[in-house]
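Suppose you are handed a protein chain with no further information: no name, no annotation, nothing but its sequence. What can you learn? This example shows the usual starting point.
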Amino acid sequence: MTIIILLILTGLLLLVLEFFVFPGITISGIGGVLMITAGIYMSYSLYGSATGHIMLAITLVAALLTLLMALRSKTWNKLMLKTELTGNIETVDESTMQPGDKGITVTRLNPIGKARINNQDVEARCPGQFVDPQQNVEVVKVFKTYVIVKPIN
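A reasonable first move is to predict its three-dimensional structure. Written in structure tokens, the prediction is:
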């Protein structure tokens, strides 16, 4: 009987770990379900259907109580990721920047970097080649978040 109880308790622990600590890995979830199923099967086969029904009912109640306690426990809050990502996308003011405008690279375009065009720092791309810093460039095409430039020789 001890083995059956240990199988079921270990299975419940693995399921809780699957839900709250290792989401998406499924190895612990599958292992937990298999252990619980094996424990209930063993109780039916070794002790008969009456004991099997009792163990099944106890397992269901224990699973619900474990889930409720795990959801209410503040212990899991320490393990959960609560980082909030903040950021913004720099957009290009298309009304002040047109193809043919000239500027200078601030960083190396490798092939993406920063350029200052019309006193505005923007993400610049120079497909197919690298451009060193402090080089003169010309705008070829303007997009919402970046510009395509070519070096001026």
